[in-house]
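Many introductory courses stop at the sequence. We go one step further.
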Amino acid sequence: MRRIALTVVLQAFGLTTVAAVAAVAGVAAEGVPTTDDPASWVAPGITVLAALAVAVLGAMWLAERSAARVSTLLETLRQRVDRLNAGDRPVPLHSGIVEVDRLDAALIRGAAQGARRLASERDFAADASHQLRTPLTALLMRLEEINLTDDLSVVAEESTIAIGQVERLSKVVDDLMTRTRHGAEVNPSVSLDSVLASLQREWQPAFAQARRSIKVSGERGLLVRATPVALGQILTTLLENSLAYGRGTVEVNARRAGPSVVIEVSDQGDGVPASMAPHIFERSVSSSGSGLGLSLARDLAEGAGGRLELARAAPPVFALFLSVSTD
């Protein structure tokens, strides 16, 4: 900034110096006295001094104006930095000074990049929190079952399921790290039957404790395009919401519809309020965390090339559409 101010001031002095030289040259062009009489030199000398004085005063005036303008621009940039830090996005300054405009453009670009990075980190933290919380909760329930029983056969069964949940948790972490590094997912062919059977075993104890049950029906042997972790997480979110807010039996029905497989998850509860239904997949929806989970589930479905919809608000039916795999 000092360099910018100094440049402007020097330019002002340079302009006025040129004017002074031109004035002196003009006097010289009129001719230099050839007499030895000192009085003959007075008039030209006064003219030269007057020209120099005017040049100096002009330089001082221009320098003062330039310094005031630079000071104003510096204060404007300082205020714009504060506004950028607060999340504002002002339009380019267009001051007319190349260095200032370049600095302003760099500030705007840096603020925009920082905002995008911060939003991405917040989304990742929210997604990671939700994806890790569910398998950890399920694992804790299995460990509690083991702790409360003396039946070795029950201990062996629950331990086997707990080991499977630990492996799933590890895959969730790997999946999150892959998404962070590459920003895209490869969707292999996955057996829908195996994913649904695993989820039914995992969630049946929690539903039984609430005197409810999970019923899986529909076509068998379906293969879909999705990562097992993403598919499991989408359906887990729907089951978790049904357990928290629904009633009665949860039905999971899978069927083929043209080039897609439709997986519907429904229960016998009151469903989604009409005022919330249009916004149920928005992150801003905050009904005890369900908004975040459904937003994440929708993002995972889109990442797999599918979509997640609220097919019916009451009683609730969520429909997951995925591409059929022919592998």
